[in-house]
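Reopening this ticket.

The earlier resolution said the output was attached, but the attachment link was broken on my side. Pasting everything inline this time so it's all in one place.
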Amino acid sequence: MPGNAPVLTDEREQLLTFLAQQRDGIRYAAFGLSDEQISLAPAASSLSIGGLIKHAAATERTWIDRIAPVDDPASQDSGSLEERMAGYQDSFRVGPGDTPASLLRAYGEVAERTAAVVGSVDINQPVPVPKGVPWMPDDLDAWTVRWVLLHLIEETARHAGHADIVRETIDGAQMYPLMAAAEGWPATDWLKPWAPS
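Inline output:
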């Protein structure tokens, strides 16, 4: 998708398109990385590109499971706060079997499920607010699917920015040249697609 999301008249499709654009930002940050580079955390934080992809996929999956539960919806809120926090921290860790291709494939599967679920529901449908975590309101029972999509856009955009910083720290590659390379744009006076050095 070129630098800007297209203008669409359907609100649901517009929200999904903006979410896809932010996912692309994370994916482009991984473009051309090796299995070793995907788990590097070269900046001041412990974030890696692979960890960001894994976390963004897990976060999106969790929210979409709140809209259309695949199991018992109450099970999402089970476990002690310590267990839930450990699961959250694990979502940022690249495992020994994780590769750029496997992480991106899993993220793509999450994106497909999101589109299918959101396409099958009313965006005003209530979505239960998670309980028992300090950053969620105790005085609210439900948000809407629209709110969830806007939250996912916000969350994904935040992590796309993190991924930009991590990638530039790894090898100096920046978002627009990476996007141009990933999408196969021709070189111009304005922009040269990224190429491995």
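Reporter confirms the inline version is readable. Helices lie at 11-30, 49-67, 81-90, 100-119, 145-171, 175-183. The chain has a mean pLDDT of 91.
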